[in-house]
Amino acid sequence: MKGKTFLILLVAAGLLVALWFFRSADEKHTGAVKMGDKLFADLPVNAVASMTIADSESKVTLVKGEKVWQVQDRGGYPANFDEIRDTVVKLSRLKIGRSFSTSPESLARLSLLAPSAVDASGGGKQITLKDQSGKIITDVILGQTRETDNGGSGGQYLKKVDADTVFLVDGSFQFLKTAPAQWLKKEILDVKAEDVASVACYAGDPRNPVYTLSRSQKGEPARMTPVPPGRTADTAKIDQVFDALAPLTLDDVRAGNGETPQVEPDRPRLVYQLYDGRQISIFPASDGKASYTVRVTAEDSIAPTPAASASESQPVDDKTQAGETATPAPKTARQLNEALSPWVFSLKKWQFDSFITQPGLLLEEVKTKGEGES
Known about the structure:
This protein has helices at about 5-30, 80-90, 105-110, 235-240, 320, 335-340, 350, and strands spanning about 50-55, 60-65, 70, 75-80, 95-100, 125-130, 135-145, 155-160, 165-170, 185-190, 195-200, 210-215, 225, 230-235, 250, 250-255, 270-275, 280-285, 290-300, 345, 365. By secondary structure, the chain is of the alpha+beta class. The strands form 4 sheets. Strands 4-3-2-1-6-7-8-9-5 form a 9-stranded antiparallel sheet, with no helix packed on it. Strands 13-12-11-17-18-19-20-16 form an 8-stranded antiparallel sheet. The chain is elongated, with a radius of gyration of 31 Å.
């Protein structure tokens, strides 16, 4: 073999060895993953005790409490557990489409820089999962999504915080939320109008209501008292008041300084008397501009409720008799009060407006014969 040919073969062999070395090193660094593998196959889903999600504008930390998951940034108010579970499970099931090394410029272009990076335009969303001891389970940055030729989703670029390799995975977290208010458990109460026996509104005198909406029997239309001469009750408005708790959902929440709202003479409140004996009080407050809040308390009623319809005393249905799963028992007044009274709930204006405290808004003029006729 000629010396020149041997030299060429030797150089080629050296290049192959170098290529193999760097590829092996890269596979070792990335856990020897390959296309189709689950990127987080060993993620201990049940060991996750906290999740922090951040982008360049906001950040939220969700923690596992003694009974429920909580939004740490909102004083420990209950979080939407279904969304937390879905996010962690989705992360654990991500499959690799491809992986590659990249440069700082490419990281910025793919929005894979840390949210705290100086160049916020290149920052992605960072998810940090920790266990009960505070040890990091996984820490990743989610970048841009990839579109297919037909405009569909082609996955999302992802990078582990402590590694340089970029992965294109089959899932997408494009709409993952980072604002604390977006992770709150939205439902405050869910009381159907048919379960409300009466609603009394107080303002000025804590003992004498300014108006009362009540029905003599379950299923009957509610009547308003008092109704001034020349006026009549607006049934649509009355229904609006009765429907206000079905369901009552929050927009945001803040702690109420650990104090239960007081029954002050000038503070409006609506007392919902339920057929099951629970009594729920709503304390609405607004600055008339952008703040619409309520406080909520609950207690067992002393006064008897109007009689329920005859159907309420019928035996349980066939499904219950057959041993099928029944609807969970509603929370007691004490449980509701412990869960709700410490908080101030912000509502959307349209929902706040259902808590009508001015009797005049429930009335309309009596139409005389021929009025409105052409």
